[in-house]
Each structure stands twice: as structure tokens, then as C-alpha cells.
Amino acid sequence: MVIGTGNVGSTLSENFVDKALYVSRDGGLTFKSTHSGNYIYDIGDHGALLIASKMNEPTSFIEFSWDFGKTWDTYKFSED
After folding, report:
1. What is the DSSP letter of 47?
2. What is the pLDDT of residues 16-39, one digit of tens each?
3. Where are the domains of the chain?
């Protein structure tokens, strides 16, 4: 499992809009874009749980995946 924020191209974009969250389930051989934009993320439960949230923005929810980034659900933890 490899997860990271980046962009497709020869260099890393300085523009946050061009970035996306990518997940690889085959050790980095292939990557799939799961979220558009700049995201902060974490891996929990020894790789079984992925957590993501927009970076540098106030938020009231997180997104999480129990199937290695194939599908994502939302958990709202605050009204604000």
C-alpha cells in the first residue's frame, strides 16, 4: 500500500488545484487517483484503514476507506 499527494507530469506542481490523492495497491507499480486537490492523509489499523481530508481548509468531516482506497465514506464530526 502506497498513498500520496501529487500530480501527473515531469515535476511536482506548485498549484494545489492540479494535485490529487493517489493510492497504489501493488507497491507503487500503478497508482489510482482517488481525490482531486491537495489532501492530508493517514494509514491506520496496519493498512486496513485510510483517512483523508482536504489540506489547509477548515472542515467538519473526514473521508475514510476500509478497502484500500477502492471506495470512500464520509464521517461528519462537527457542524462547523
Report:
1. G
2. 667 899 999 998 999 999 999 889
3. 2-76
